């Protein structure tokens, strides 16, 4: 296993773990992400669901927004991976 793959897997795992904690606790989270048009969006919402579809991971936010996990830039001010989309 090479270092970049190990690093990528560790970041993905920690993001998924953090999102799962927000999902189970029902706490509000500040999510900064890029939408499908590439615009940066910031919302304060609860996480309603986490799931995978077509090999990609998604978060369903409280008001019904569906966000690909790889489009998330920060969660409560914590930088998530290298979101350069």
Question: What is the strand and helix layout of this fold?
Answer:
Blueprint: H1 3-25, E1 29-34, E2 40-45, E3 47-53, E4 56-61, E5 66-68, E6 72-75, E7 78-79
Antiparallel strand pairs: 1-2, 1-6, 3-4, 4-5, 6-7
Verbal overview:
The chain is α+β, with helices and mostly antiparallel strands and 85 residues long. It has one domain: SH3 type barrels. It has one helix at 3-25; strands at 29-34, 40-45, 47-53, 56-61, 66-68, 72-75, 78-79.
Summarize the structure.
With 85 residues, the chain is α+β, with helices and mostly antiparallel strands.
- Structurally, the number of domains stands at 1
Please report the total strand number as a whole number: 7
Q: Total number of helical segments?
A: 1
Helix content bin: 25-40%
Structural class by helix and strand composition: alpha+beta
CATH topology: SH3 type barrels
Protein name: Rho-binding antiterminator
Organism: Marinobacter qingdaonensis
Any descriptors?
about 80 residues; alpha+beta; SH3 type barrels; four-stranded antiparallel β-sheet; three-stranded antiparallel β-sheet; disordered N terminus
């Amino acid at each position: 296993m090479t270092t970049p793959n190990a690093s990528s897997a560790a970041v993905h795992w920690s993001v998924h773990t953090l999102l799962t904690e927000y999902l189970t606790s029902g706490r509000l989270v500040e999510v900064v992400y890029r939408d499908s048009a590439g615009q940066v969006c910031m919302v304060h919402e609860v996480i309603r669901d986490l799931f995978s579809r077509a090999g990609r991971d998604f978060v369903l936010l409280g008001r019904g927004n569906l966000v690909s996990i790889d489009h998330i830039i920060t969660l409560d001010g914590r930088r998530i991976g290298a979101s350069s989309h």
